[in-house]
Amino acid sequence: MSIVHTYNQSHMNIFSYVKSRIAIIDVVNEYTTLKKNGAYWKGHCPFHSERTASFTVTPHKEIFYCFGCHEGGDVVAFITRAEHCSALEAARHIAEKYNIDVPAGIDTLQQTEQQIEYKKRYYALCALVAQYCAIQLQTHQESQDYIASRAITPTMQKQFGLGHFPAGPAAIQQLLHYIKKKHFLAQDLLDTHIILQGKNGLYSHFEDRIIFPIHNHLGNACGFGGRTFHSHDSRAKYYNSHDHTFFNKGSLLFGLDQAKKHMQAKNSAYLVEGYIDCIAMVQAGYANTVATLGTACSAEHLQILSRYVQSLYVVYDGDNAGDKAIIRLSELCWATDMELFIITLPDQEDPASYLGKQLNFSSLIDQAKDIFAWYIDHMKDRFAHKHVSERMAVIRELLLMIQKIYNPIKRDLLLQQAANACSLSVATLKLELENLLRHRQKAPEDARLNKPPVRENTYISSEKKLTLENQIFYAIINNNEFISEEHEKILMGTLPIEFSSIFQKFQGFRMATPHGEFSTFFSTLIPDEQALVSNILMEAPVANNVLTFSKLLDQLRKKQWKIMVNDVKLKLAQTQDDEETKKIIAHFQSLKQKLLEEGLL
Predict the structure, then answer these.
(1) Are 193 and 242 in contact (CB under 8 A)?
(2) Average pLDDT, the chain
């Protein structure tokens, strides 16, 4: 029996029963004051301090979402966060407070045990794959040589469970034989995307990569990071596990399970960008080090770290990419109580390379700058030797950052630093800042919804423009019966990636749980996806029948065609290969003929 089949039992449990008998709006109103705004309700978030309303409830979908701190989910998730309890405790709390009589036939413990068993099987499978890869590393000299070249000792290899995933069909069969001993099947690996089904059989994106097992904060193996090591390997350098119920790159930190006790003891932590950087830091004695999983640091990462430490030292690569990552991070730190410090590495160095040269890292720690001071220094570098108009733009950018601080003392201190850096008077900057604050207070309330302070690709539109894609997506999540197999193929090929990813998850959810609540599906999305869905749900419905939906779909395909024409022109201009040119033209003509036959051109 596969993992997915074990989990997707369809009988009602206490969670679905409680949600079916209480309106989320009634529960949330106990914690914050909400005002109706079209199809949704809005108020101040009960989970973080804010001046402008960024917390929303969408009653017809029974979900909540905060555009400020990224908390979102159903009524059970809300109580879990509000009362700092488990999901089961939250469900029982709701039942007791709102006098919901849960029938004896709904065995809450049975369903909970099923979920626990599913979770245990998933973790056990990941641990088994990690063991297999660790064994393979012992006999693969090239991967051992690469690890040795990065100065990672055998002790660290064992501590972090490093491994190697062999390449080829024989290796896949060997892995299947290995997990079969513990009663796992190929379908379990397919369900978790560790292996995939291709035209020529089973394969894995992890093949011929060094494997870094990833554990959650409790120490359970829940995913993998794979790194190429051959100089001729043209694939992406890193590949991480596919997002799963128990693996979300935006909420996991590599090494946290080992680092947390050291973090609490020192009340500080080091944040780096890569797995090898993290291992190198730990090997050098900085056991309170964690790393993100190939993603930008998110608000959720900072919230997790703030549970353990008061001070966070950020150690990013000494290049433009590292600087950009810190700038993004500076936009996050307003939402955390931690003190953030920046450790600046020399150009073209990362923590592993720097430590590998036996250089003095402690001196860099002594020179670490408060993130605000670092940001102002960065602005100062951009300010010098600029034209007047460019200088004004830099100052405005700096003031827009400072205006987010609600502590007047801290704001004044930063204004003084900014004034010194830009050779301007504090009074001048203060006057301009007051103008910005006054403008913000006069702006329409919708336009002042706090943008998520973390992600540069968070999908929020304060202008509420009903784009074609938004109209189609609204129709999908409200009237899933519109979607035929042909529609699904078209949508997966034409929707923007942020939409198609959610659409794919939604279709999978509908297949697994045909009668599942939308709020349950919403809780499985990562914060960026929740933000996008919440924003669209606030817009007025458009397509309410199959005919309207089909027309919208035709418009999307026409729009995609125009984009495709430009892409083809660009490709033809860039290629000098006759065969490649023929292939491009043939593919283009095939698509054109299909659209002509359907009357879309």
Answers:
(1) yes
(2) 79
Task: Give all strands of the β-sheet with 163-165 in edge-to-edge order.
Answer: 163-165, 209-215, 221-227, 238-240
Cα 192 to chain centroid, rounded: 18
**Long-range contacts of range 114-122, CB-CB < 8 Å, 24 or more positions apart?**
114/6, 114/7, 114/9, 115/7, 117/6, 118/3, 118/6, 118/7, 119/246, 121/3, 121/6, 121/184, 121/188, 122/3, 122/192, 122/222, 122/244, 122/245, 122/246
In whole angstroms, give the CA distance from residue 409 to residue 402.
12
**What would the DSSP string read from start to end of 321-353?**
HHHHHHHHHHTTGGG-SSEEEEPPPPTT--HHH
Residue 295 DSSP symbol:
S
End-to-end Cα spacing for the chain: 49
CA atoms within 13 A on the CB side of 537: 24
> What pLDDT does residue 598 have?
52
pLDDT tens digits for 522-534?
Answer: 878 887 788 888 8
Residue 156 is predicted with a pLDDT of: 97
Calculate ∠ Cα 400-449-304, nearest 5°.
80
3-state secondary structure of 313: strand
- HSE toward the beta carbon, residue 42, CA cutoff 13 A: 17
pLDDT at 503 over 80: no
Confidence of residue 147 (pLDDT cuts 50, 70, 90): very high
Q: How far apart are CA 67 and CA 308, in angstroms?
A: 24
Q: Is the pLDDT of residue 254 over 90?
A: yes
Phi, psi of 72 (to 5 degrees): -165, 160
In this predicted structure, what is the pLDDT of residue 34? 92
417 contacts 372 by C-beta, under 8 angstroms: yes
Residue with tokens 């997915």: 4
* Residue 323 token pair: 């600087």
- Give tens-digit pLDDT for 317-352: 766 665 667 777 766 666 566 788 999 888 888 899
Q: In angstroms, rounded to a whole number, what is the distance separating the alpha carbons of residues 254 and 256?
A: 6
Residues contacting 579, CB < 8 A, separation 6+: none
Instruction: Please give the C-alpha separations between residue 106 and each of 7, 17, 74, 102, 109, in angstroms, as whole numbers.
Output: 17, 8, 20, 7, 9
CA distance 25 to 338: 32
Cα dist from 74 to 28, 90, 402, 555, whole Å: 10, 11, 34, 34
238 or 424: which leads in pLDDT: 238
Closest C-alpha to 436, from 394, 475, 401: 401
Cα 246 to Cα 10, 227, 597: the distances in Å are 20, 22, 45
Specify the amino acid at residue 131. Q
For residue 496, count other CB atoms closer than 10 A to its CB: 12
The rounded distance, in Å, linking the Cα atoms of 320 and 156 is: 30
Give the separation between CA 117 and CA 44, rounded to whole angstroms. 38
